[in-house]
Amino acid sequence: MRIVVIISDTFRFDYVAAHGLKKVRTPHLDALASRSADFLRCYTGSFPTGPNRADVYLGQYWFPQADWSPLPTDRPTLAGRVGELGYVTQWIGDCPHLMKRNAYYHRGFTAAVQVRGQEGDVYFTRLNKPDPRIQPPGKTRRTRHLGMTLPNLQEWQNEPRWEEDRFCCRTADLACRWLQENYKATKWMLWLEFFDVHEPWDPPEYLWRHYDPDYQGPEMRHPNYGPADEYTPAELRNLAAHYAGEVTLLDKSVGRILRQIEDCGIADDTAIIFTADHGIALGEHNRTGKSNIHPRDDRCWLMFEELAHIPLLVYLPGMRPRKVRQYVQPVDTAATVLELAGAGPAPSDHGTSVLDLALGRARRWRRDWAISSAYLGRLGPRCSGLPVLYTGRWAYAPRTEKFGTGGLLFDMNADRSQTRNLLRKFPAVAKRLRGRMARLLEQIGTPAETVAQLMGEG
């Protein structure tokens, strides 16, 4: 069985048009969803990008153990374990953070190649060019490289002119070339890491204009990682339009890879997984971005729906498509890939293969919950990625946006936007979920003193 895994950075669950929640153009992902197992309750585990990949590459929840850090060299990786089964494994991607500063996220792959230049990855300077000043500095993240904000730096270094110049198109082109060079072999895994749809969002104008045709003003390509009310309503719509345009562009790139698999005649012997690491706030809860690094924002940021809920599509040749409503998380990806390759998970793994769910043969599923969280070692006011427990109809957080211990409780059946705190109305539910969350955190390796601090008991 050939295996293709596609991970898109910052892709929200509700931006797959087939899910019926947003008016967005994703025809190729919709087509894949129509013939796959579409997991409707996939929530990220460790947050953000690096910790998520540790979940996936190691098969263990990373947020109880460490923050964003190099992949440890003393633990077996998914790629290495698949390689031991006789597979050739290829990593192709444009995510800059997985390959730089000895991050080791490509460890274990037979071969790995990176498309350079995404988000602050300066590999070729153009000092004769002035700062293009695409987006006003007060409307974007304060981070600067070579004196430029990230959206301006991206334009300055890469200067994309055609659609094909964009990163997801270049990564897809490399993937298609690899497929053409390797399709005759039968035992390989192709792992694709698209940094899109991570910001800066620079789709061609004709794509973002589908979502904001009348906008007049500077392009909003990058969130401010702070309060959304720093934008005018028109600017906020344009920010979301740029995100949607990038989603559509990424969809076209995924479609090209799927077509190449068909053209090579290997679709009947290739398993395909499409997923993401986390989402992003586009105005919800008066936020844009993923974490609070804004000098004017004194709130904690929690793992709300727009950050935590991600797509997961699993295609197996000859399967019946279905909607799957059990809770799954990225730690399950490792176990799933290992089963596809002909092996089982290690005893230390936290995940479970989702293949039985995908094929409709699972009578019971071990998890009726999902926990999404950033590293818990730096709890306190203004921290980001505070954990949320999703289970059944409820979403529960033990801390509020002011790091208060009162907690938050939302009815996800009636309030997907998580704007009505029902903790006072259902105190018994909150108490039960509080205890359950504490037990689950300890079961996945969170130190007891950290759990006590999170719950306000330490």
Keywords:
single chain; 458 residues; alpha/beta; Alkaline Phosphatase, subunit A; 12 helices; 19 strands; 28% helix; globular
Q: Brief overview, please?
A:
The chain has 2 domains: 2-358, Alkaline Phosphatase, subunit A (3-Layer(aba) Sandwich), CATH 3.40.720.10; 393-454, no CATH class. Helix content is 28%, strand content 17%. The chain has helices at 27-34, 49-58, 78-83, 150-158, 167-182, 205-208, 233-263, 305-308, 331-341, 355-358, 427-443, 448-454; strands spanning 2-8, 37-42, 88-93, 111-114, 144-145, 148-149, 188-194, 226-227, 270-276, 281-282, 287-289, 301-302, 312-315, 322-328, 370-372, 384-386, 388-391, 394-397, 408-411.
Question: Can you describe what's shown?
Answer:
With 458 residues, this protein is an alpha/beta fold. It has 2 domains: 2-358, Alkaline Phosphatase, subunit A, CATH 3.40.720.10; 393-454, no CATH class. Helix content is 28%, strand content 17%. The strands form 5 sheets. An 8-stranded mixed β-sheet has the order 4-3-7-1-9-13-2-14, sandwiched between helices. Helix 2 runs parallel beside helix 9. The chain is globular. The N and C termini lie far apart (50 Å).
Topology:
Blueprint: E1 2-8, H1 27-34, E2 37-42, H2 49-58, H3 78-83, E3 88-93, E4 111-114, E5 144-145, E6 148-149, H4 150-158, H5 167-182, E7 188-194, H6 205-208, E8 226-227, H7 233-263, E9 270-276, E10 281-282, E11 287-289, E12 301-302, H8 305-308, E13 312-315, E14 322-328, H9 331-341, H10 355-358, E15 370-372, E16 384-386, E17 388-391, E18 394-397, E19 408-411, H11 427-443, H12 448-454
Parallel strand pairs: 1-7, 1-9, 2-14, 3-4, 3-7, 12-16
Antiparallel strand pairs: 2-13, 5-6, 8-11, 9-13, 10-11, 15-17, 17-18, 18-19
